[in-house]
Amino acid sequence: MTNATPAISLDGLSFGYGPAAPDALRDVSLEIPARAVTAILGPNGSGKTTLLHLLLGLLTPQSGRVMLGDRLHGEYTRRELSRLLGLVPQSEHVPFDLSVIEYVLLGRAPYLGLLELSQEHARQIARQALEAAGVAVLGERAVPSLSGGERQLATVARALAQEPRILLLDEPTSHLDLKNTRRVLRVLRTLCDAGRTVVFTTHDPNAAASLADHVVLLREGRVLAAGPTERVFNSQSLSETYDVEVEVVRLNGRLWVLVH
Questions:
Q1: pLDDT in tens, 14-49
Q2: Can you give the pTM of this predicted structure?
């Protein structure tokens, strides 16, 4: 993995929302490995969502560059980006009373015109996406009838219908109970094991410890540390990230984060 081309490379990336506001990201340089799970970890306001939006091209950096594979971000067309990157946002408003399969079919927009969404090939891809997300039985349910965990997994399926090589998730477990958090994290591990690059933001270090191969620690728009979870996840680095005394312990073969 160390010799492979990173899925994403950032070099000196900076961004601010206005002259009166502090920079949301400052001189961020890091590499996100391909076919691995990377957690971008930090407290609220550390720049996690801003970083995802820069990767998607929703924001333009004020300085620095973004590489996706071996190409500059700006060399991709919008359609190419939508096929390369899939996003699962923190929340997504569904304005119509769509069924889950209809909602997932929206992920085929980068490939098909709006009037082609009912084609059998598109429906086959959507069904495969629902299967991969573990919610195939929900296809005919109305989206508003879903529980929080079911809706989050349906959103994962909608992103998977784009057939992206890189899946970006913004705080995917922030509103879920323990059972659904575990369910979502297991799906993300399965997707990575099948060959996708998974990048998710979180303020929960235990979610990161349970899943991530690679961790990026952000505080006030700066990278404090980045690298393999086993190396980066330690009491000192996490205490600095969260500005609170943190202890990292190993229990039953995995890392746990305790706050004192």
A1: 999 988 788 899 999 999 999 999 999 999 999 999
A2: 0.91
The answer to whether position 73 is within a domain reads yes
Task: Give CA torsion, residues 18, 19, 20, 25, to 10 deg.
Answer: 60
Both tokens of residue 65?
Answer: 């560059």
The CATH code of the domain that includes 89 is 3.40.50.300
Q: pLDDT, tens digit, for every residue of 134-192?
A: 999 999 999 999 998 999 999 999 999 999 999 999 999 988 888 889 999 999 999 99
Task: For residue 179, give its domain range.
Answer: 8-259
How far is the C-alpha of 228 from the C-alpha of 237, rounded, in Å?
13
Residue 1: inside a domain: no
Dihedral in degrees, nearest 10, Cα atoms 52, 57, 61, 63: 110
The strand pairing partners of 30, in sequence order, are 10
